[in-house]
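Let's study my pick:
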Amino acid sequence: MNNNNYYGNPSFPSTPIYTGNTTPPTNQGTEYTQVMQLPMEQSYIENILRLNKGKKVRVHMTFPDSNEFRDREFVGIIEQSGRDHIILSEPSTGRWQLLLMIYVDFISFDEKINYSPEFVPNS
């Protein structure tokens, strides 16, 4: 059985729609000249952690594939955070830990949390 043409023979135009000095059509003359503005960053966990950099936290995590380390609590100072990770330091031991956000259940603070619905990074 020959399946060479099972998906068909896709064909693409040999010349682009706009060539040379031709410019794409615009909506000149219409009143649709709205400028799209991007929203401020929203309050994602990584941004909340960045606003609280330097504070002591307890990061509660669950590792579903591990029987030995199933539920763990990590205590330390927030050094950095990103979309998928948190970096904590433990001044008493000198240990630094890179924790993956995917395993975070919740994070508790011993002091008031800095929070802003719109994230503006600290300079």
User: Anything to note?
Assistant: The first helix runs from residue 45 to 51. Residues 59 and 107 are 5 Å apart (CA to CA).
